[in-house]
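Note to self: user wants both folds in one dump. Writing first protein now.
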Amino acid sequence: MSESARLQDISPEQHQAYLVWRERVAGTNISSQTLLATDYLNHFNEIVMLLEMLADMPDMLDEAKAWQPKSYQEHFRDSAFHDRDLAIEAYDHVPEAYRRSFEDVIGHLNEHVSQSIARIEAAILAGTETAHLHHLCGECSRTIQKLMDFANAVIHGSTKVLDQEEVDRLLGP
C-alpha cells in the first residue's frame, strides 16, 4: 500500500499537521514516515536479555517478573533518548494506519512477555533440568524477537496487521 493510500482517510487538516511533523522529525532518529522511533524497542530488549539469562541464573526470576509493559510515551519519559520530548509529542500525530498496526503488535508483545515469564517461572519452580530450561528460554526469546521484528517493520512504514493465524503460528503451542 502506498503512503498516499495509507493517508487517504485523514482530513486535510490532519494531513497538513502530518507534513509539519515530518519536517520536525527530519534529521532525528524518529521516522519521518511514521513518526515513530525504534528506541522504544529497547524496552523489550531488556526483557529478552533477562529471559535468555534465566536458564543459567534462575535467581534473576524476580527481576524478570518486575519487568512491566510501558506505553510508547512512558518509555520515552523514562529514557535518555536525545529526542525524547519530540518522540513523546510526535506520537499523538502518528497516522492511524501506523498507530493501529504498531499498537496491535505491541499488545501481542506484552502478552507474550507475560506468558513467557509465567511459563519460565513454572519450569524453574518445577525444577526443570537446565537443558530444557535453556530450550524454553530460547524459544520465548526468539518469539519476542520475531514480534519485535514486526514492530520494527511498522516503525519503518509497514501497516501489516498480524492476523490471529499468524499470531498463533508465532506463539505456537
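First done. Writing the second protein, which came from a different request thread.
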Amino acid sequence: MQIHLCAVGQAMPNWVQQGYQEYAKRLPRECELILKEIPAGKRGKNSDVARLIKEEGDKMLLALPPRAHLVSLDIPGKPWTTQELACQLKIWLESGQNIALLIGGPEGLADAVKAKAQQSWSLSHLTLPHPMVRVIVAEQIYRAWSILNHHPYHR
C-alpha cells in the first residue's frame, strides 16, 4: 500500500522538506509515504481566491492515484487520537488500497475535493500552517505504524 500525501504548495522551506523526509524514509515499503505537490495559484491583493481554490482542487483531483481511498485533512473532520490513527492505518493496510491524504492551500481544500473524500480527518481545531501539516502528518503516520509494529518509537 502507498499513502499519497497530496498537498497544495511547492518550494517549501528546508525545515519542512527535511522534517517530512525524516519520517517518510522511516516507513517500510509496504506503507510507503509519497508526497505529491500541487502548484498553488498565485495570490495577490486582487486575486480571485475562489477561482484559485477551484483550480488547485482540479489539479489535485487529476494527481490522485486511481481507485485510492481519499481522506481530506480539514478542521471539520474527525479528530483521531494517535491510537485511533493506528487503528485506522491498520484498516487501510488490510484493505490493500492506496490512500490519498489531501491537504489544501492557505484557504483550504476545494469543495470538489471535499465531496470526493470518503473520510475527513482533523489534526486540530487550530488552524495550522499548511506546510507544517506535511511534517505533522508524516510523523503521525510513522508513529501509528510504530504502534502497530511494537516499535519503541511510540512511548
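Dump finished. Worth passing along: The mean pLDDT is 93.
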